[in-house]
Structures are given as structure tokens and as C-alpha cells.
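WARN retry 2 of 3 for item q-0093 after timeout on previous attempt; input resubmitted unchanged.
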Amino acid sequence: MGSEQGTMNSTLITGAILAGGASRRLRQDKAALKLKGKPLALWVAEALTPLVSELWLVSNQPLDHFALGLPILTDLTPFQGPLGGLLTALFYARTTWVLAVAVDCPFVAPTLLSALASRVHATSRPAVVCRSERGVEPLPGLFSVRLTPRLMEFLKSDHRLQLFLQRWRPEILPLDLVSSLDPQGQSFVNLNFPEDLAQAHRWLNSQRDGLAAELPTLDFRP
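OK item q-0093 returned
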């Protein structure tokens, strides 16, 4: 039954990997940056693919990303951060919902993505996001294409995803549920600095060796 439900949900959902950031702090293209030999974009793609009918990498640099082998959308409004990438995905989606993840979140938990995807038949709100220990997290999130005209208008004056969500009152998965699905909060870890990448390597090694190591500090700085 769970598998059938997941298949039904996926026909309504487009996956979007948001890769339009400038990567100033990391000083490397995040989508192609390798973690354990695999580009960050492919880490995210593997988590999203089972839950969506099609998957897009939304990018300001499509020529640089063709080698990743993912379908690419070029940002409609370049350099507007994750909100501009989300608008592009909503605009082009052939489904009613978009499940969006930032490209620099390689540890996003499939269980949490599945919980977000499962809300397509249940929510009355135009978006579903999560609450972590630090508050409401704009990504990963499930977004209705109904938001497209509102988002176009919002981007004329602002590009802050958190502020946009506050205005349109998303459904928020509660902290206890989110913590049960992703106990370490790994879905909300962004790799923004070289030291974050080094710490991510150490964390992966510790998981392989059965040792304890800390994830990079939770951060959302587009």
C-alpha cells in the first residue's frame, strides 16, 4: 500500500534541485562539487528521484552543469537565490506540486522528503515545510504551482524565501515528526564554506566506520 501511495503521489510532483546560488563563500560551483567522489547535485537527485515524476536542476549556469547528466532549467530570474529557482520550477512544472531541495543539502533524508510528498492529497495550504530545532525551514519543501503568480509579484520587491512563506502561511510539519524522520537534522545542513565540506567528509567517514562525528553546523544562508 505504501509503495502504491508513493507512486500515486509522484505523478503529481516535480522534483527541483535549486542550484542558482553564487557560491561566493564556498568559492566553487556547488552543483558539481564532489563529496566522496559524487557531485552534490547527484546526492540530492538520488533522494528526490523515487518521489517525483520528473526532476530538474534549476541553474544560472546550464553550460557548466550539462556534464551532470540531469535535465536542466535555466533560471527565469537569475541571481534571485532559491526563490528565483523555485519560481522557475513552478513555472515549468507539468505537475501540480514541486518538491524542492537546495543543491548544497546532500544529506537530505528520503524519509523526510517522503513525508512532505505524502501531503499532496491532504494539505489545504499552498506549501508544506518543516520545523527544525532552529525554527521553520523553507527547504526542503513542497510547493503548489498555484503560488506562481504570487511569487512573480513578490520577486519584484524581495527575494527572501522565509518572508514569502510567512505571507502565504504554509503547513508546517511539527518538530516531533521531523525529528522522528530525521533525528540528526541532516536535511537542513547546507555546505556553504570549505570547512563545511571538510566536516561533511569526516561525518561520512564516521558513519562508515561506526564512529561519532558532528555534522556541519545547521545553516541556511543562500
